Write the structure tokens for this entry.
Amino acid sequence: MLTDREVISTFEMLRNEHLDVRTVTLGISLFDCASDDLGRFQRNVHDKISRLAGNLVGVCDEVAVKYGIPVVNKRVAVSPVAVAACPFAATQMVEIAATLDRVAREIGIDFIGGFGALVEKGMTTGDRALIEAIPQALAATERVCASVNVASTHAGINMDAVLLMGRTIKEAARLTESADGLACAKLCVFANIPQDVPFMAGAYLGVGEPDAVINVGVSGPGVVRKAIDRARRGNPALDLGQLSEIIKRTAFKVTRVGEIIGRQVAQRLGVTFGVVDLSLAPTPNVGDSVGEIFQSLGLKSIGVPGSTAVLAMLNDAVKKGGAFASSYVGGLSGAFIPVSEDLHIAQAARDGFLSLEKLEALTSVCSVGLDMVALPGNVSAETLAGIIADEMAIGVINRKTTATRLIPVPGKKAGEKAFFGGLLGEATIIGVADNGGSEGFISLGGRIPAPIQSLVN
């Protein structure tokens, strides 16, 4: 049972500290929609998503009103389209993306994820067709998100796929030049992608998941910052161990909120409840920033020396508190550092505290990776592939999920701004140390073997 103080504290989180459930994502398997006839496959996909997710927005809104807790985003994640639609060519994959976009618009959800492929060990014909379709599919749709897993601790890094994704990102940016390469903001490249991510753009429904399942992504960076600030005002002598305990207890409360909402939505929709993703997900709004937590813990800005240690402590405390609050924790779970989507992280990039190299160092202990990083438009596909390969190596060697969401902004240089709008925010373009110095390595291709820690069976 909650004490009176804890009840009051939770109300305070709702009123003043941006507490919300960031996303409720309904995972839907498309495997029983399979057909070698494109029209039949599209109808099957449209009908199944409409049937299972038609009431998702309404149910989320009802539950939000009942508990007084906002559910900010309602989303759908489907089986990897490269698998479910493996008989089709690239042009047909674009048509499938249009079907996904249309049904997402009809049922009123924010995004639909799963236009993706799993190619860490090699590529099938369907995988190649889907990757070829990604630039046009993302440029021509509004709500479709794509993800491609190119590496894992068990398989190593598929460098042929890494180079292909570098070229894919360049083409996606070119097709949305007038929108600062917006299509790239809907494309993630992963190592060790989880099967139950509720957050976009990486969400998809894994092959080991139920036919339909609710996964929830919580939020709360503003809540964590306020908890730290209150504690330090009351006792300025608190050390980092004690502050870590405060973060842990706060994460417990935030996760319990997500668990309650998720189970209620799943029950009303008549589907399985899956996991709570503990990730602290920021927005461009004042007071809802992961970057502000670094300042509350004594750093001038995220990016200065000490930032990696703070992020490691934050991630650990959030996971410890959240794991105790929920029976099923999954997804990414930790703290996001999306450069454009977090007001203070975006400011740190503008002020020069965050370089590409420092961001990469931070990703060694965070939940995602190089997220929403705007780069000069003239960066080469091979340089993009080199950046992706570095990030994949961090995930593979450390047995953790890492990803990139890189946006080479057409026609713009380092120091200029890119504008993506809404939740995606805006970003200062970060320079690349040596654009073109990676080509010899990337051109070798092949697969970097899995590390020795893959031998665990």
About this structure: Residues 240-269 form the longest helix (30 residues). The mean pLDDT is 90.
